[in-house]
Amino acid sequence: MDTKYKATVFATAMAGFLSLSKFVIGMSSGSMAVISSGLDSLLDTFISGMNFYAIKKASMPPDKTHQYGHGKIENFSALIESLIITGAGVVIIYNAIYGFVKNIPVKYTILDLPIMIFSLIFSFFITYVLKNAGKKTGSIALNADAAHYASDIYTNSGTILAIILTYLTGYQYFDFAFALIIGIVIVFSTLKIFLESISGLMDKSIPEEIEEKIKKMIEILPFPYAGFHKLRTRTSGNTHYIDFHLLVCRESDINKAHEIAEKFENQLKKEISGVDVTIHIEPCDSQCDMTEITCNLKIQTANKESFQK
Asked: Are both 74 and 165 inside the same structural domain?
């Protein structure tokens, strides 16, 4: 079982345990804040399970009907996740307002505070595990999961504060107020996940700093390299797809041109993980004496003009 699977299974198991514990205790005390936190953990369980399927599917090799692989299912999973979490946040906001208006009684049990402190500690731990796994693998599904568990840190902290304030002051409105805040935090925490998943589904270019690094690597290729154009990039799952037209001296033989392209592709895969490169070789159409010195001067001038723009 690789890093992505281990992280997802761990998150699913812990979220399931926490959601069950908080629901039972929240229903016993009538605390809207604890119940809201339990609902959030229940969603964590469902979403982590959905991400496990998405990660497993995304890691499958390309097939006859999916020749670019299955990476986009991670983006789709993150999009569904953001919509479900937003819906849960809206439900929590509604119930918090309803409880406040109807003045529904809250009677904390001796277990409310301990389970929330326990939940806070594990929220930190789960977030740490998922962030590390997401950073290591580049999985958008794991990064989305980590972002949601990070928001749990704030919601669990708010619930603990609500319990303490309600207990010390006797005003149960603190419980409803913090439940309302939890709902709002949950809704806004999904915005980044939603936008990133949409960008992935619409084939957004890879990060600008990586694209600039690729350009610099192309520009230092040796003769008979004579320039490049039509560089295009996109990301699917945790794979970066890159294609461009490589110009070579028109008098160069195809074997030499292919050798340069192959060396560049191998070097790029060493420098940047998870890349799939397609290079189209074209003859340079510049009129010159076709010597290496002249070609290099032309390239240097073109690069300088491009940089100044």
From this structure: yes
